Amino acid sequence: MDKKKFSEKTSWFWKWFLNNQVVVGLVVVLLLLLILLVFTKVSYLFEPVGQFFAIVGLPMVLAGILFYLMNPVVNYLEKKGIKRQYGIILLFIFVLLLLIWGIVVIVPEIREQIQSLVKSFPGYINTIGEKADQLFKDPSFRSVQDYIENSAQKILESITDLTQNLSRVTLQGLGSVVSIVTNIVIALFTAPIILFFLLKDGKRLGPYLVSFLPNRMRRPTYHVLSEMNQQLASYIRGQLTVAFAVAVMFMIGFSIVGLNYGILLGVLAGFLNLIPYLGSFLAMVPVIFIAIVTGPVMLVKVIIVFAIEQTIEGRIVSPLVLGSQLEIHPVTIMFVLLTAGKIFGLAGIILGIPFYAVAKVIATHVFEWYKSVSTLYKDEEAVEEPADS
Fold first, then answer.
1. Is the dihedral of CA 347, 353, 357, 362 positive or negative?
2. Per-residue confidence (pLDDT) for residue 90, from 0 to 100
3. Least confident segment among 176-190, 214-228, 259-273
4. Which of 110, 212, 249, 275 has its CA 20 to 30 A from that of 255?
5. What is the mean pLDDT of residues 323-334?
């Protein structure tokens, strides 16, 4: 009798709290947040770890990007009967020769165009100013002329303040500049070594990592790691291939129409194309600027080149190279770019999408696991007991 009364008294507590999936989930979230709060209070303990990753992070990222580009070639050479080590060495020699060719042929041309652009830039500014004055003298612009002049004055004052602040910060930031240069030099020397061992033993990395896990968790964890690796490989190869194609198309197009600094602007367009959706339009800003100074005919030619490039990239290059492997909605990509750019700057804009793809894979598998162990997502037919026949 006492047991029955106890069961009746505790049944509501068991039903609404102890045996409630939502409450248990909220408790788990609360515990995770508490753990994060504790970590923030003892963050100084992890400063050596942060410094370690600050040193090895850049070479590891460079080696990882080159690994995804070069690994298919090494696999192809291995299938053709060439030992993996020899294939890696041959590919390294080819890349080194390609870099030497670029330094000898492309870099001097880009340097000359940069120097010429720097010398001509004040003249371009004066030309744009004269054309703007002619435009604003039109009677139709008198109503907004005062507003434009006030806005221009405010912009000039902001630029002056920014210049003064930069002059004060420059001397203070010399130490950080030296540190950045040192990290870059270290990365250039260590990244090839990391890359060599990634290409040589990369296939063993996944099984080695999951070997530390319990037997029951090894197969699903390896499946998640493989899917993450596939997402990163598809994105990095696709984006770099499309960026290279965009740079070549713009260089050819600008050379045909006779635009100044065509090679420099084409290379810039290729780099900016690493930013999804926005890269090509950002690259067209300096192109339009130079075309306006050159003349209206050049502006029309540049717009035609841009339209042709966008058509080829959107209809041929991107569908063939990228396809829909990431399965990320364009609106989601825009939110990720804005958020990552605000928090991490340029690095967040470039690396935000691949990190989001990896996080999406992890979140998807965690949610699938939760659905399998929870009764909240089961069909009603599966939950109901079959009627007695």
1. positive
2. 92
3. 176-190
4. 275
5. 67
> What Cα–Cα distance (Å) separates residue 201 from each residue in 67, 74, 85, 194, 197?
11, 12, 10, 11, 6
Q: What are phi and psi of 387, to 5 degrees?
A: -70, 145
Contact 23, 158 (CB under 8 A): no
Tell me, what amino acid is at 314?
G
Residue type, position 120, single letter: S
The Cα–Cα gap between 244 and 364 comes to 32
Distance CA 112, CA 326 (A): 40
Which amino acid is it at 291? A
Query: pTM of the predicted model, to two decimals?
Result: 0.69
Residue 174: predicted pLDDT:
46
